[in-house]
Amino acid sequence: MNKMSIEAQTTSGNFAKVPPMGWNSWNTFYDQYDEKLLMEIADVMADGGYRDAGYRYLIIDDCWALRERDENGKLVPDPAKFPGGIENLIRYIHEKGLKFGLYACCGVRTCAGYPGSFEHEVTDAKTFASWGVDYLKYDNCHRPASQGSEMLYRRMSFALRSTGRDILLAACQWGTEGVGQWLSSSGAHTYRSTIDIQDSWESIRQITEKRLEVLHEGGPGHFNDMDMLVAGMYGKGVNPETSSGETAGCTSEEYQTHFALWAMLNSPLILGCDIRHPDETTKKLLTNPDLIAINQDPEARNCYKLVCDCSPSAFTLVRPMSDGSLAAGIFNMGEAPVQSGFSFWDLGLSSSQGQHLRIYDCLRHTNLGLFREAFSAPVPAHGCQVYRCFPA
Ligand code: GLA
User: Fold this and answer.
1) How many distinct structural domains can be found in the chain?
2) Are strands 269-271 and 21-24 parallel, antiparallel or unpaired?
3) Which domain covers residue 342, as residue numbers?
4) pLDDT at position 248
5) Any atom of ligand 1 within 6 Å of the Cβ of 230
6) 146 lies in the same domain as 276
7) Which residues pair with 385 in a beta bridge?
8) Cβ(112) to ligand 1 under 6 A?
9) Is residue 111 lining ligand 1, measured as CB closer than 6 Å?
10) Domain termination site, one of 244, 262, 295
11) Tens of pLDDT along 193-217?
12) 139 an active-site residue?
């Protein structure tokens, strides 16, 4: 992770020029968290290599407030969850060199039934700013029937900007009302365009399919958020909405494909597993510097997609990188292994004019050598290969 990309995630007035990275409580913990657990997560982020790999935001999702506002109309953090006070927790997180994120909702209630911000946007934005919030995940539940979400996201964006504090607005909009078209102009910085992720291969496959339909959407300052990562959960979350019951959990091969897809497709990388107890494979995957460098490339260009004759479920995603190389991910969403790859002609190279590629393997961190006209590799079912291709 280079210094420039960390700054691009967080520097004042320069939000989300690259996709934000962090950790969120929802996937694993649902409403079962408190300040002790969150401080442990902050410790692991800061001391366990996650912050230095690029994960900056520690985000509390739904269920943090009391069921009613106080007599001044302000949201009240649940004292059972935050006996030391939320500001104390936020201070702790900031002292660890992290940023703090919180959840709210543009309707009258949050999705889990806590008070929503509709007609309280200005008060809530001021409250969040006064507590030291750096990131707001803003959900889309329980909107009054007469209110479109475009206006409500504009509203919270303006309220946050008016506080004078830099607060990244993550619109959790689920892909209705053509959100990809108006998200940037609403002032929000990232947007969900699919339903909630679950800890299953089928969910990862469906979200990817939707994203591939709108490869041209999203970019610096307004990234398409493919939802929080389930990588490393292995069916262990207590959230009934994220786990798929009996079938919850993926193989480590599938989690690697999931992480590589999110990285290639410029999605925010928001961890959702219990990072206090990761297995070594998960930690290596989530902190893979070569995959993170693709996601955090300062030019943040979108990918194009090449199809493979070998199978309708295999494709290659390619992205021009700011150092003149190409990032290329070969994905096999199908049920049988394939030999798949790309011809340099399709990348826009002219072998007859002497354009060749030196290829580096981002999963194994090794140089594979010089290739002249094409490249292919074996890709297991539900698997991937990811490369950086340098002009040679
Ligand atoms: C919605 C969002 C989820 C999560 C829950 C919380 O379903 O899409 O990501 O924030 O609400 O209730």
Assistant:
1) 2
2) parallel
3) 304-391
4) 79
5) no
6) yes
7) 330
8) yes
9) yes
10) 295
11) 899 999 999 999 999 999 999 999 9
12) yes
Task: Tell me the per-residue pLDDT of 106-152, one tens digit each, with 9 for 90 and over.
Answer: 999 999 999 999 999 999 999 999 999 999 999 999 999 889 999 99
Atom of ligand 1 nearest to the CA of 110: 12
DSSP labels, 323-356: TS-EEEEEEE-SSS-EEEEEETTTTT--GGGT--
Do residue 140 and residue 278 come from a single domain?
A: yes
Together in a domain, 224 and 370: no
| Closest CA to ligand 1's atom 6 | 62
Q: Which residue among 105, 227, 241 has the greatest number of ligand 1 atoms within 8 angstroms of its CB, and so is best to mutate?
A: 241
Residues contacting residue 199 through CB under 8 Å, at least 6 positions apart:
27, 230, 233, 234, 235, 237, 242, 243, 244, 248, 249, 250
Tell me, using a 6 A CB cutoff, whether residue 139 lines ligand 1: yes
| Across 341-348, average pLDDT | 96
Q: What is the reported pLDDT for 384?
A: 98
Q: Residues 37-77: pLDDT tens digits?
A: 999 999 999 999 999 999 999 999 999 999 999 999 999 99
Same domain, 94 and 184: yes
Give pLDDT, residue 12.
Answer: 45
pLDDT by residue (tens digit) across 262-293?
999 999 999 999 999 979 999 999 999 999 99
pLDDT over threshold 60, residue 10: no
Task: Output DSSP code: residue 150.
Answer: H
238 and 333 in a single domain? The answer is no
Report the C-alpha dihedral over residues 263, 245, 57, 105, rounded to 10 degrees: 110
Question: How many Å lie between the centroid of ligand 1 and the Cα of residue 7?
Answer: 28
* Same domain, yes or no: 249 and 339: no
Confidence band for 90, pLDDT divided at 50, 70 and 90 = very high
For residue 196, the CA-to-ligand 1 centroid distance in Å is 7
CA of 101 to the centre of ligand 1 (A): 14
Q: How far does residue 107's CA lie from ligand 1's centre (Å)?
A: 13
CATH number reported for the structural domain that contains residue 310 in this entry? 2.60.40.1180
| 76, 65 contact by CB (below 8 A) | yes
pLDDT grade for 14, boundaries at 50, 70 and 90: low
Angle at 14 between CA 46 and CA 110, to 5 degrees: 70
Which residue among the candidates 61, 139, 225, 297 is catalytic per the annotation? 139
Among 260, 295, 330, the domain-final residue is 295
Q: Decide whether any atom of ligand 1 lies within 6 Å of the 225 Cβ.
A: no
